[in-house]
Amino acid sequence: MQMQMWHNMFVMALPIGEKILRPILVYAFLIVGLRLAGKRELAQLNPFDLVVLLTLSNTVQNAIIGDDNTVTGGVIGASTLLVVNYVLVRFISRHEKLERFIEGDADVLIENGRITDDCLNKEAISQLELEAAAHKQGFASLEEVDRAVLDPNGTIAFFAKKPNPDTMRHEAIMNRLDEITSRLAALKA
Fold it and tell me: Where do the DSSP E strands lie in 47-135?
């Protein structure tokens, strides 16, 4: 009885080569699938995206482990995923063109204060999601944003509008007038 328990835990039903190949194939499929799904899947998750990612992991579980539920098989599958990821990330980081091909380029969501609707539609980001991301970075509204860029890793970088010289000069004059008005009021009193 006890011998059977140890056998079930550690003796694999599948050959070790298959246990290594399965995670590699699933890993490659997921990399391509997430790349095609768009950048928002990586960082800008809504509840629907989260559900898909959670069920996706459960869906591919059997493809990775097959009919083998042993501890040994699980350790080999997990180790294979970790090693493949480590090697691939190190390799890609040294090859800029390959990295750009796999990760994609940044998308400009707002340019010169104008929202680029085609990029929002392409990345399936609503204006409400864009506003929420801007709020998280300290912007009261999208009208304060000059440029917003969706990076390949899924994060959105916002850049504030800079006042033009005429606006700055006008504000300086108004501030000076307010100061003069305050001094005059103090002299009258």
Answer: 107-111, 114-115
Six-digit token string for 38: 């768009």
Are 116 and 33 a contacting pair, CB within 8 Å?
A: no
* Chain centre to alpha carbon of residue 138: 19
CA distance 40 to 29: 18
For residue range 91-146, what is the model confidence (pLDDT) as tens digits?
988 988 888 887 778 899 999 999 999 988 888 888 998 999 999 999 999 999 99
Sorted by where each starts, the structural domains of the chain and their CATH numbers stand as 2-103 (no CATH), 105-189 (3.30.240.20)
| Per-residue burial over 91-111, b = 16 or more CB atoms within 10 Å of its CB, e = otherwise | eeeeeeeeeeeebeeebebbe
Return the CA Rg of the chain: 27
- Kindly give the pairing relationship between strand 156-160 and strand 145-150: antiparallel
Number of neighbouring beta carbons within 10 Å of residue 40: 18
SS3 24: helix
